[in-house]
Structures are given as structure tokens and as C-alpha cells.
Amino acid sequence: MDEKIYSVAVDGPSGAGKSTLAKAAAARLGIVYVDTGAIYRSIGYAVFRRGLDPKDAAVTSVLPELTIEMRYGTDGLQRMYLNGEDVTEEIRRPEISLYASGVSAIGEVRAFLLQMQRDLAKKSSVIMDGRDIGTVVLPDADVKIYLTASVEMRAKRRMLELEQRGTPQPFDEVLRQIEDRDWADMHRDVAPLRQAEDAVVVDTSSLDFEESLDRLLTVIREGLTH
Ligand code: DC
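Above: inputs. Below: predicted complex with 2'-deoxycytidine-5'-monophosphate.
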């Protein structure tokens, strides 16, 4: 790769494999992986801890009290800090997903986080995943990918992930949660999840991990040479 800083935006619905694939692609390309969902989760977690309803406008009044930082460990992995406290593990709890989704629908929350995300992409080459990266955060990203998979496949994968984490849940419940989150993420007024016009769609429904990663890397390399 040359010295030029470049950015890759990866958007798509929950459970399409964005974070696992983007993380692996970043390692292959030697660039920084930014998981923007973790930033929304950190705000969601702060709101949860304060006992607030994540959809309540009162969430906005909490924002000035929050310092959200992203630091990279010696393993190169992203860790999240909320007012100096490492919350990397806590924000993955299933109940925090709903809080993250709730706060992410509030315009002030999105505005609060916008510059932070843009600054990360100015400092070094990044592959950034989220819902509005190609449409709002980095509209000039060098490569835009819309990563998706069928809802059943996403629920199956999420179920396995929860099992491995020791917090199993029945398939029907996982499916319903994914459908609910899709609906909320796609129908909110501010920055709803949608495919950027210039994004390349990668559907991983019938691809395994290696095939999906190959496809992603091919799209990125092709995008960077055009
Ligand atoms: O990717 P994730 O499941 O960790 O994201 C958690 C929530 O944050 C999800 O419901 C959508 C929201 N989100 C968002 O609105 N915009 C982003 N760029 C990233 C995540």
C-alpha cells in the first residue's frame, strides 16, 4: 500500500458479520479498525447505568457528562472507555443492544459523536463499520461496502455467538430481536440505515467466513485502484 491515508466504510444491518469481517480485513491491510457501534453502545451503557429510558430526550442532558474514548491495546484491538473506565466487555451485554439502538435514534447523540468518528479517519487509514458511515460520517470514503445477509442467517450466527459467550438464547427470540433492531435502525428519522448509492453490496448469506473475507478484500482492493 502507498502512504496515502484512505478510508473504507462498511455499513449494514445487525449480525451481518461487519465487525468480525472488518476487523480481519483491517489486520490483513495493516490499517485501523473502528467499530462505531461500540461508541453508541458506550452511550447506551451510560444511560442504562443512570436508569434512564434510552428513548427519552433526557438522554441529551447526560451527554456533557460523558467522555467516550477509543484506545487500542497492544493486541491492536479497540477498547472503549467511558469517563476513564474500561467498558469494553459490559457494552456487549445483550440488554445494552437495545439501549444502544435507542440512543442512536437521537439526533443530538449522533451529532455528539460525528466529529469523533471523522477525526479517527483523518489520523490514519481506517476501515470503519456502522450504519451511516458511507452516507453521513464519511461520505467521501474511498470504498463503500454494504454488507448484508438474510435475517435467518444473521439470527443463526448471532445465536452461535451468544452460545459461545455463555449467554444462550432461543432462535425465535434472537430472530425477533434482530428484526426489531433492523426495523428501528432503518426507520428512525436521523441517519437511518440505508445503502449509499455508491456502495458495493456484499451478501454473505451463502458465504463462509473465508469466502466473505476474500470478497471484502477484493472489493476494497478494486475500489482503491479505481
Ligand atoms: O453494530 P452494533 O450492533 O454494535 O450497534 C449498536 C447500535 O448502534 C445499533 O442498534 C445501531 C447503532 N449504530 C448506529 O446507529 N450507527 C452506527 N454508525 C453504528 C451503530
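The beta strands are 7-11, 32-35, 68-72, 78-82, 85-86, 126-130, 143-148, 200-203.
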